[in-house]
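dumping this here so i dont lose it again. seq + smiles for NAP
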Amino acid sequence: MQKEGAGRTALVTGASAGIGRAFAEVLARQGYQLVLVARRADRLESAAAELRQRYGIEAHAIVADLADPKAPSQLVAELNRCGLVVDVLVNNAGYGVPAATSRRRGRATMPACA
Ligand SMILES: NC(=O)c1ccc[n+]([C@@H]2O[C@H](COP(=O)([O-])OP(=O)(O)OC[C@H]3O[C@@H](n4cnc5c(N)ncnc54)[C@H](OP(=O)(O)O)[C@@H]3O)[C@@H](O)[C@H]2O)c1
């Protein structure tokens, strides 16, 4: 039976550790081609290599600091350069701002890029 992710590409930010790494694992198991994004190249490359080897999928590592306002356009340029079209986005990298929630009651706090 064909896997759900076959022929599809998923991009995971913060994919070298924690929750993002776990998302990448699940998507790899489902057969997605992966684009993994984080700042530290060594950890990112090692996660990509492990997922390729374990699941036989393509995994591209793109180093980016998503706190940099230029990062999104650079990321899109790199995706275009590699001919990658993203079907699924797991925009995981970031941090919560609990103080903002308590100061401004009733307003949800969205995760922001770290
Ligand atoms: N763990 C929890 O209990 C929990 C609870 C609620 C919400 N969250 C949220 O879930 C997300 C992930 O949490 P986690 O616990 O899995 O974190 P984590 O284990 O620290 O992993 C963070 C990942 O994001 C990458 N990253 C951090 N800053 C980045 C940046 N500026 N640009 C690109 N990549 C960046 C890290 O790699 P590099 O450092 O190499 O970039 C790493 O791959 C965060 O948004 C966090 O606020 C977590």
